[in-house]
Amino acid sequence: xxxxxxxxxxxxxxxxxxxxxxxxxxxxxxxxxxxxxxxxxxxxxxxxxxxxxxxxxxxxxxxxxxxxxxxxxxxxxxxxxxxxxxxxxxxxxxxxxxxxxxxxxxxxxxxxxxxxxxxxxxxxxxxxxxxxxxxxxxxxxxxxxxxxxxxxxxxxxxxxxxxxxxxxxxxxxxxxxxxxxxxxxxxxxxxxxxxxxxxxxxxxxxxxxxxxxxxxxxxxxxxxxxxxxxxxxxxxxxxxxxxxxxxxxxxxxxxxxxxxxxxxxxxxxxxxxxxxxxxxxxxxxxxxxxxxxxxxxxxxxxxxxxxxxxxxxxxxxxxxxxxxxxxxxxxxxxxxxxxxxxxxxxxxxxxxxxxxxxxxxxxxxxxxxxxxxxxxxxxxxxxxxxxxxxxxxxxxxxxxxxxxxxxxxxxxxxxxxxxxxxxxxxxxxxxxxxxxxxxxxxxxxxxxxxxxxxxxxxxxxxxxxxxxxxxxxxxxxxxxxxxxxxxxxxxxxxxxxxxxxxxxxxxxxxxxxxxxxxxxxxxxxxxxxxxxxxxxxxxxxxxxxxxxxxxxxxxxxxxxxxxxxxxxxxxxxxxxxxxxxxxxxxxxxxxxxxxxxxx
RNA sequence: GGCCCCGUAGCUCAGCCGGAUAGAGCAGCAGCCUUCUAAGCUGUUGGUCGCAGGUUCGAAUCCUGCCGGGGUCGCCA
Length: 599
Description:
The protein is of the alpha/beta class. It has helices at 11-28, 58-66, 70-81, 104-117, 148-166, 182-198, 217-227, 236-261, 273-276, 282-292, 342-355, 373-383, 419-426, 428-436, 459-481, 488-496, 506-516, 518-528, 532-554, 566-590; strands at residues 43-44, 54-56, 87-93, 97-102, 133-136, 171-177, 268-271, 296-299, 317-320, 331-332, 360-366, 389-395, 398-402, 405-406, 444-447. Among the domains are: 8-102, Gyrase A, domain 2; 182-261, no CATH class; 454-590, Orthogonal Bundle (Isoleucyl-tRNA Synthetase, Domain 1), CATH 1.10.730. The chain contains 20 helices and 15 strands. The two termini are 55 Å apart. The mean pLDDT is 91. The protein binds one RNA strand through helix 2, strand 10, helix 15, helix 18 and helix 19.
C-alpha cells in the first residue's frame, strides 16, 4: 500500500499518492483486479480551470485492464477521494476524468511550503542510487573567439545542467577541446605569422588558408616576448608544437572569459590531445577494443550520393560498424593519410566519459551536426556495451536581427559578430533568457533592439520586472507591517505566520496554484531535457502577478498593501514572497539575474 | 536521391507521457486609464493544428505516405 503524502511542497505528487492509494484500496476490496499498471496515471491541472484544481485520467487509463467502463471506475475512485481530507469536491466529467477541487487550505499550505523552502523550492533530493549525468556543451574550437552561433548551445547546455542538478541529478559540465586536429596546426601557423609581424616583419596580407583575425596579434606578441627571434629561422617541425600550445592556451583563455561574461560554467575542460598523446593512445586502444568486439573492420564504402565526388577514391578503410546500431552506413575511423578522423577520437572521448562512470550522456550540438547523431549514439552503445545512453540536443540556428532587419555578417574571414559583441550590447540576461525562450530545435530570431525594450513584448524585462515589483512591495510595506526580520529564514517564518486564510480572492488563489505547480514543472522539464519550459512558466507567473497588481488599480481593496490592515498586508506579503521565490529560483536556473529594482 | 528537424490564429510561438470546447503574446476591433513602481489596463475577433490514410474509447500529439521550408550527406570539425 502506497503512503499518502501530506507534503504540500509538491501538491501534484501528493495528490497523485492519494489517487494511487484510493485505487489500491479498491484493489484490496476486490473491486478492481490486481496488477494494474498505475504508471500512466497522471494528476495535472485541467485545461479548463472551471473544471476544478486538478484532474486525473486514472479511470480512463485503467479501464481496459480492469475490464470496466471508465466512468464506473471513476465513480468508485471518486467515492474514496470524497473522504480525503484535502478534497473539497470531486466531479466526474467527459470520458472519465476525475476533477478535484482542493480545500483552499491546501493551496495556502503549498504557499507556506514554498516560502519556507525559499531558494530550495522545487529542488529534488539526490536519490541514493543517483546516476551521474555528463552534459557536454560549447566545445568550440580553440582557434578564435566564440561567435553568436556558439551562444545558444552555451546557454542551453548551462541551463540544462542547472536544471538537472536542481532536479536531483549529479551533473558534470564538460567542454571538449578540439586541440588535436589539423585546424590547430593552422592556428599555430597563423600565430607564427603574427609572431614574425611582432618582430617587425611586414607580413602583408594573410595568406589563404590561415586565420586572418586580429585576435592572433596578441599571440604573436606573446611569442615574441617569450622567444625573441629564436624561433624565426627554425624549421616548422621544431617550433610548431610550442607555438601551438601557447596559441591554444591563449585562445582557451579568451573563450573562458567569453563564457564567463555569459555566466556559463564548466567543471571539466577535456583535451582531445590528451587522448592521443603520450604512451597510452586512447583512440588506438578504443579501435583495438572495438575491432576485438567485431565492431571495427576493413572494408569499402559506396561513394556518397548527392554531391558529385570529385576526389572520391574507392579504397579499403577502417570502418566502425555503426549500421549494427541503426546508422545508415558504416563510418571511417582513419583518414587517407592514416590519422584519426574526428569521429574516431570522439568515440574515444565518449568512451572516456563512460569509463569515468557516466551512463547518462547529453551532448549539445549545433544543427549542422544533426547528421552525426546516429553514429555517435551507435558508438556510445558500442563502447558501453549498451549500458550508457546518449541524448543529443540540437540547438537550431539563431537569426541575428536589429529592429527586424538581419544583421549583416560579412563572409570575409575574421569579420563576424562575436558572442562578446552581443553580450556587451544587450547584456547577458537578455541573451540568456531569449536563447531559452524557444524550444531548442526551433530556429530563433534574436532581435538586438527588441530584447532591451522595456515593455510587455519583451519577456526578459517582463519577468524581471515582476520580481522587482515584488521586492518593491516589501520596501513599501515596512510602513504598514513594520520591519520584518533581515534573515531570510526568520522572515519566511514571520510571513507564514500571517493570516493566510485571508488570501481568498480568485486572483490570489490562482497565483497560489501557479506557485504550487513549480515543482511539477521542474520535474517535467528535467525529464524532457527542456529548460525552455521554465522560461515559459516564468512568463505566465509574472503575467498573473502583473494582472493581479493591475486589478488593484480599479479595486483598491485588492492591493497588496492595505494601510489600515497590517494583518491582511502581511498575508498578501506572503503571496508576494511566493512569487518572488519562484521567479528568483526559476531565473536562477536560467542563469538570469532577478533584480531588486529596474533601472 | 538518403537521413534529421520544422510546418498550430494575419505575425512570433507554447501545447507536458495520447485526453475534455486547441492556448499565449503581438497586430486588429471595442472600451477604460495617467497610477500602491513608470515602462498602461480590460474585453473581444480570429484555427480544416501542411495534406491523406492508419492505430483506439479518444490524435495537434503515436505510425505510414505525400507536399512545403531548413540542415546534412567518406577522409572538414
